[in-house]
Amino acid sequence: MRVAVLGARGSIGSAVVRRARLAGHQVRAVVRPSSGTERFPAGTEVVHADLYAKESVIEAARGVDVVVHAANVPYPDWPRLVPRLAENALAAAEAAGATLAFPGNVYVYGRPQTRPATEDHPQAPQTQKGRLRVAVERTFLQAHRDGRIRLVLPRYPDFYGPGVMHELYRPIFEGALAGGRCRWPLDADAPHEFILIDDAAEAMLTLIRTPAAHGRAVHVPGPRPITPREFIRLVYAAAGSHEPRVRVFGRGSFRLVGLFNPLARSAYEMGYLFDDPVLLDGSLYRQLTGGPYPATPYEEGVRRTVDWFRSHRTTS
Q1: CATH code (residue 201)
Q2: Torsion sign (Cα): 208, 210, 212, 216
Q3: Fewer Cβ close by (within 10 Å): the C or N end of the chain?
């Protein structure tokens, strides 16, 4: 299978590159031009493209069987750039006659009306970012129904793992290695879900190989619900650090930081996910694929992530 990964330097993009190369697929890592050193598995074809220019993306994906739309931008740029990135990914998949794989998230649901949520949960986002994601998914689904592409749409909880540099999760791992305290928004004791980034990539590749899963959203949960406080304890234990001091900050602090930080200001509307989180039901994945979804236990996933941050910290 020939796979082009748009945004291959990002968290899910780089994980898909790793897992696809491990499985023996031909992989083309499509990245924005940069002076940085490329670090991809041996045998990966690296192509530089302007992901905001349709013709550039079409050319970068020419001749492949699968286009993975893993390109992302910071929250403040979502209204302007998310639709353009999606349009270009769709055009590239259609031009190549390829399957389009798009990593979904829980933003489309808004506040949970059932827990866990199945794939028929109402899509009622109260946020701008949720409405943007709904619009992108509906465009992709319509293209699938029209026969323009084949769509693979796994839906995930929050990512963590080697190489995931999210502004909320990175300080937890760095703080554990430094023996410091860490922060968490709103509620550290509400049940939450996290998925190891390599599990997310492996599930996507499985769904690509499962025709019955095409043209519909399929949930890929974490191994189990866990409170952020418990997750943070696992991180600090794996780092050999002291019992963590978790500082929980409320909406007032969130809003105050947003006065000076555009990223925090843009993230504020997603705050409900920290005190009223969405948990996913994974029954459909098992039904369609005939097997369980990848679910590395948190203890093992956290240990691997701490090891990555330790080595990254040493060599940086």
Answers
A1: 3.40.50.720
A2: negative
A3: C
